[in-house]
Amino acid sequence: MSPQLTELKLDERLQRGIALKVEGRYDEAEAEIRAVLTEEPDSPLARRELALVMNFTGRFEESIDELRRAVQIDPEYLDARNDLALAYSMLGFNDEARAELEAVLKIDPANATALRHIVYFH
C-alpha cells in the first residue's frame, strides 16, 4: 500500500474514533485511536484524542500522560496544551496548570481558552 493510502486510511480511522468519542462510545473510540497510534505513534492529534477519551472515562492520570506526549511531540499544539492545563487543574496541580496556560499565551497571547482559564491562577 502506498504511503498516501496508508495516511488516508489512518486519517479515516482517527476521524471515526473522534466520531465514536462524540457519540459516547468510548471503548470503540479508544480502539480506533489506538489502532492509529500503532501505525503512527507520534501523532499529536491521536494522542490528544486518546487523552480526551481517557478523561471522559475518569482515567485522568493516563489522560495527562497522553497530553504530555502530544505536547512533547508538538510543543506548539495549543489545544493539547490547553487540555493539559485543564487536566492538571482538575487534579489540583495548579502550578503545572498555570505553567501550561502561560506557555500557550507566550505562543498565542490572544488564545481565548488560555485567557479564560488563566484568571483562576492569579
Task: Tell me the structural class.
Answer: mainly alpha
Distance between the termini: 53 Å
Poorly predicted runs = none
User: What is the number of E strands?
Assistant: 0
Number of helices: 7
Beta percentage is under 5%
Mean pLDDT: 94
SSE order, one letter for each helix or strand: HHHHHHH
Describe this structure in words.
It is a single chain. The chain is mostly helical and 122 residues long. It has one domain (3-121): Tetratricopeptide repeat domain (Serine Threonine Protein Phosphatase 5, Tetratricopeptide repeat), CATH 1.25.40. Helix content is 78%, strand content 0%. The protein contains seven helices and no strands. The protein has helices at 3-22, 26-39, 44-56, 60-73, 78-90, 94-107, 112-118. It is globular. The N and C termini lie far apart (53 Å). 34% of the residues are buried. The model has no long low-confidence stretch (mean pLDDT 94).
